[in-house]
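New to this. Help decode both lines:
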Amino acid sequence: MSIVERLLSPTPTFFQKLRNIGLVLAAVSAALVATPVALPAIVTTIAGYLAVAGTVLSAVSQIAVPTDTK
C-alpha cells in the first residue's frame, strides 16, 4: 500500500482521536511560543517539545489504516 493510498483510506476511530490530541498539542505549543509576553526559557523549551510531539502524533495517526480481519 502506497503513502497516497494510506492517506486516502479511512482512519480508524482511535487514531482519529490521537490525531486530534496531536493537533491540540501543536496548537497549544504554538500559542505559548507566539505569546508577546516574555516566558521563562523552560516554558519555551517545553512548548517546542510539545510542537514536535503533536506534529509527529498527528502525522503517524493520519497514516494509520484499519486492518482486514477476514
